[in-house]
């Protein structure tokens, strides 16, 4: 097959090339041709030229949501095989899915959906969550973009005032224990890592100086992760489940089904389970 790996809209070879080459080798070693295309340049002619689309490093999709959703519509309309399925990608693009998972009984970080134009939003959230320490992020966002730690008396930052948002209580455990990421391929646990924020920061992403280390996920973390996966609209071929470990048990922070860093450098099989899961969906 001729497989297309979608890459960032703004290409930084030093930052992204290693991940692309790792994933390219994974499928080329199985006899497939791999081509790379910036996700925002995947036009209809390109889609007709490939056998399947893998959005594995479509980083930056959240910066142009209209174009991203248009691409998903065109992939679905042309019936181009895509892993994960466009319906999953669309659902997972909006962080409102966290409220949906919570309604279905998944242990999620409490989440309030709102709009940045709402008067008294932070005060309402503080009353709802019974804490003055809050986290605000856009419903369409990634890599910590537009994410702020605020108090009820703060002004909402200018860049999120005209956006749909989610608000959550700030969990101090993120500063002490970090964020645990569990990787699943075809519903089976593969490996895990913990991401930690640098001193003076709460965001754990490498863009903000975060670090990482390989860990083995405890059974209670796997239980929450698998409950979240079971509630996805379709079974994903690949998933990263981000949790924070609290004194009340693990809580879901994100269910990453689009273009997560899958920490293949820690995979016990060098990513063979990811390749098998993807190719099974395409067979």
Could you explain how this protein is built, in words?
37% of the residues are buried. It is globular, with a radius of gyration of 19 Å. The protein starts with a strand and ends with a helix. With 283 residues, it is an alpha+beta fold. The strands form three sheets. The protein has a five-stranded antiparallel beta sheet with strand order 10-9-8-11-12. It has a four-stranded antiparallel beta sheet with strand order 4-7-5-6, covered by helices on one side. A three-stranded parallel beta sheet has the order 2-1-3, with helices on one face. The mean pLDDT is 94. Helix 3 (65-77) packs antiparallel against helix 4. It is 30% helix and 26% strand. The protein is built from nine helices and twelve strands. The protein has three domains: 2-82; 97-107 and 173-282, 2-Layer Sandwich (D-amino Acid Aminotransferase, Chain A, domain 1), CATH 3.30.470.20; 112-169, Dna Ligase, domain 1 (2-Layer Sandwich). Strand 8 (179-185) and strand 9 (188-196) form a beta hairpin.
Rg = 19 Å
Q: Give the class from helix and strand content and strand pairing.
A: alpha+beta
Which blocks of ≥5 consecutive residues have pLDDT under 50?
none
Number of strands: 12
CATH topology of the largest domain: D-amino Acid Aminotransferase, Chain A, domain 1
Total domain units: 3
CATH top level of the largest domain? Alpha Beta
What is the CATH homologous superfamily assignment of the largest domain?
Answer: ATP-grasp fold, B domain
Shape: globular
Mean pLDDT: 94
